[in-house]
Specification:
The chain has 86 residues and is an all-alpha fold. 62% of the residues lie in helices and 0% in strands. It has one helix at 2-54. The protein starts with a helix and ends in a 32-residue tail after the last helix. The model has no long low-confidence stretch (mean pLDDT 84).
Amino acid sequence: MGLLRTIAIIVLIYYGIKFIGRLLAPFLLKKMADKMNNQFQQDGRQNQQQEEAKKKEGEVTVEGKQHNPKFSEKDGEYVDYEEIKD
C-alpha cells in the first residue's frame, strides 16, 4: 500500500507541475520577450546618442562594407576574371 501511495503522489506531482508549467509558460515567455525588446531599444537609443555626439556639424562620413578577402597569402595570387559566352 505504501509503494502504491508513493507512486501516486509522484505521478500527481509530475502532472501538477506539467499543468502549472503550461499555464505559466506563455506569461513568462511574453515577459522575457518584452524585457529583451526594451533592452534592445535602450541599447539602440544609447548607440544613436553616442554617434550623434561624435559627429561635428558639417562633417561628412562614408559608411560602407570593408573588403575582407576570403583567402590568405599562402593560397596564392587572386585573379579576378569574367566568363565569356560564345
